[in-house]
Amino acid sequence: MNWRGEEVWQAVAPLVPGFTVEILPEVDSTNTELMRRARGGRIEPVLLVAESQTAGRGRLGRSWASAAGDSLTFSLGLPLAPQDWSGLSLAVGVAIAEALHPLVRIKWPNDLWVGGRKLGGILIETANSAPADAQGPRYAVIGIGINVRVPAAAGYSIAPAPLDELLPGVEAGDALARIARPLVDAVKGFESFGFAPFHTRFDARDVLRDRGVLLSDGRSGTAHGTTDQGGLLVHTASGMATITSNEVSVRPAAL
Ligand code: BTN
Predict the structure, then answer these.
(1) What was the pLDDT predicted at 134?
(2) Delimiting residues of CATH 3.30.930.10 domain(s) in the chain
(3) DSSP string for residues in 92-155
(4) How far is the CA of 31 from the centre of ligand 1 (A)?
(5) Which residues make up the CATH 2.30.30 domain(s) of the chain?
(6) Atom number, ligand 1, closest to the C-alpha of residue 58
(7) Is 86 near ligand 1, meaning CB less than 6 Å away?
(8) Is the Cα dihedral 251, 28, 86, 248 positive or negative?
(9) How much of the chain is in helix, strand and coil states, percent to nearest 5?
């Protein structure tokens, strides 16, 4: 696989002093690896790509399955100090969707969809980089998984969509080369200005907008976009609710 690592480094290094690109043939999970490093005091900015993950993780404790060669799995780790962390996954989703294809949409808060199927997902975790100073930067680990070709395996809760359907012949390294710089631009923009500048761009790709939705806490209603902090507005039987909890999952009532 040509990961185009040099090109990615050239595009990103001017924005992030000390930035490196690292490609591992195999690791349990790129997120787990960068969180492990952060706990050991290693908080340098890095984009870590895995050709293959043995224990890929998704949100809410789910696993993330991917086959070597058929998917892009990487994490961007860097110290970050936004005023408010809410909406980061939406800003990241906007950057990736725009970098990939006009038909890629975002399902709040962290899924990339094409049609009614899942193209990819985002898993963001943070570690304290300066334990003595709670207000200081944290080390953000932004993990991204994209289906490039879809394996024959079944058993997904939502059908996977492959990127090569939108971009015939695309390889995982090409997807990385498209995404890396816009992703870092978005993360840096989010650090300075929060989610607000991404709001309109998110709206243009919001899968749930004006659709009936079911929440995992039993509520249901109609989704009406997001707040300027990235919370999902849902009109429920008891009025307008803002969904912010990472522990609540949301799905369209009908696909
Ligand atoms: C989700 O859809 O719930 C998020 C999936 C995130 C998967 C990526 S693959 C690279 C990084 N390492 C992981 O273990 N998870 C993320």
Answers:
(1) 59
(2) 5-203
(3) HHHHHHHHH-TT-EEETTTEEEETTEEEEEEEEEEEES-TT-TTS-EEEEEEEEEESS--S---
(4) 7
(5) 212-250
(6) 3
(7) no
(8) positive
(9) 25, 30, 45
Average pLDDT over residues 108-134: 87
154 vs 72, higher pLDDT: 72
pTM, to two decimals: 0.95
User: From the CA of 55, how far away is ligand 1's center (Å)?
Assistant: 10
| pLDDT tens column, 173-228 | 999 999 999 999 999 999 999 999 999 999 999 999 999 999 999 999 999 999 99
According to DSSP, residue 45 is labeled: -
Side chain identity, residue 149: R
Mutate which of 54, 59, 63, 73 for ligand 1 pocket (most atoms within 8 A of beta carbon) = 73
Taking the mean position of all CA atoms in its chain, how far away is CA 25? 22
CATH for the stretch 5-203:
3.30.930.10
Which is the closest atom of ligand 1 to the Cα of 50?
10
4 lines ligand 1 (CB under 6 A): no
The CATH-assigned architecture of domain 212-250 is Roll (2.30)
By mean pLDDT, which of 16-30, 32-46, 84-98, 234-248 is the weakest?
234-248
Q: What is the 3-state secondary structure (H, E, C) of 47-67?
A: EEEECCECCCECHHHCECCCC
Task: Tell me, letter by letter, the H, E, C secondary structure of 27-44.
Answer: ECCHHHHHHHHHHCCCCC
Which 3 state secondary structure label does DSSP give 163? Answer: helix
